[in-house]
Amino acid sequence: MYNSTDHPPLDDPNVFILYRYHPSLAAAIIFIVCFSFTTAFHIFQLFRFRTWFFIPLIVGGLFELVGYVGRVVSSQNQWLLSPYIMQTLLILVAPALFAATIYMTLGRIILLLQGEKHAVIRPKRLTKIFVSGDVLCFLVQAGSAGILATKSKNSLKLRQAIVIVGLCIQIVSFGFFVISATIFHRRTKSSSLPAAAPQAWEKYLFVLYAASILILVRSVFRVIEYAVGNDGYML
Q1: Counting C-beta atoms within 10 Å of the first and last residue's C-beta, which end of the chain has fewer, N or C?
Q2: How far is it, in rounded angstroms, from Cα 16 to Cα 21?
Q3: What is the model's pTM?
């Protein structure tokens, strides 16, 4: 038993606990530094090359940055609710913003290679379809924000369900995106390219594949994490 001035044990399965581990200050600082540098570089690219489709990527980077600031605060006092909500929500939804830029990048690669005939979906529709799915995913996951402030079991179960639905939408969307990109890649590689096509076009696609796989792995992990619950083995 514990009195009103104490906190429950981190492994107590009968209560909801914000963190069932001690948040690492060092890890949070490392991620803050990494996202600070990469986001600053993307902001430079945005204005230098007018790559306006980088805006969601930059906003996602800022979300991650602020989210890990919340993790730093939590490392000093892991029982505070506000920094927990901040880091949970922002780190959760940031990849949906990364995904939007990834989708738009593929559309621009298709147009650059004049490869509309090789694409499964026309570039304009491709961007609209996948970004619309991404917005839906973002809104569904962000919709769980208000529920974070309550600790009732029914509310927590509802939040888990909402987040899982959002993550599943992201997994399906990304899976179809990777298939579409792969088909375009194979068709384009076996055909003649326009003279103005950049030689490094395949490298751009490989970067998209790598980013997509990382987000897919993250999404699958988060689905399992929320499915097993607050006291699950993933935590």
Answers
A1: N
A2: 13
A3: 0.91
